[in-house]
């Protein structure tokens, strides 16, 4: 089968389409013929080795995490799915990738595709949906009526996180350029900052959580807008000692991550704000709950651009430009 792979870590990872063996199923897995796969910022961070100490791949490795497709075979212990089922899933952090003609998906990570979404739309959902759900409800533990700051509201994570936060009854502030104001207002943003002409840290105050989804100094600046007892959940780093503990990493990596995150943890600690780094966890049950919101169209995927499979590498390059309004998806079938 064909897949988008990288052959080595570093500045020259040799990313491109390659012929590899079709996955061998484990008893608790589904073999999915992938119809579409979304790309995410972390897909551009893996080949250079940014997360090499914590994400483990056997090289050459297939890129991608999000997928939507049709089940063609099931393992002997699978009970919830059968061949012919249309599913979607995230297989992030499993040492495998989704930008391929076929993918092995643990039963626990999959959910039935909402029937009102096509495969491209469904593929745009899993990682951003699960990340938003876990960050807002599990890590930040927000309650109805509380306020969350979600910067870069027109991006892949922002467009979904704003909608989910709105549906859960949270008040949302975000930053966008003037051309995206109507987009994020339609998604449910309550307070919108034009980052080109305004400084969010001078306007916002009294927030209960911040979703750190952009590189740069936004996370440090956000400390000033948060209440004591609030939280910063970062998706982009720096990694922290708690993350090392959760993954059972060695003392050296815990020490290194402590140094990396020392500045933000110190700033946050002065205001009694909790800082943590989050890796999304594939979860089919949560994805099934999100599918119910998608079925009723209370939440919709926002897609910027769709690339054919033979341009999968270009999809990653386009995503890296940081201009996408919504998700970037690769159509495989």
UniProtKB/TrEMBL annotation:
Keywords, ordered alphabetically: Oxidoreductase
Keyword Hydrolase: no
CDD domains assigned to the protein according to its UniProt record, in alphabetical order: MDR_like_2
Residues in Enoyl reductase (ER) domain copies: 10-330
Gene Ontology terms for molecular function: oxidoreductase activity
Top EC group: oxidoreductase
EC number: 1.-.-.-
SMART domains: PKS_ER
Keyword Oxidoreductase attributed: yes
Coiled coil: none
Top-level taxon in the UniProt lineage: Bacteria
Annotated protein name in UniProt: NADP-dependent oxidoreductase
Lineage: Bacteria, Pseudomonadati, Pseudomonadota, Betaproteobacteria, Burkholderiales
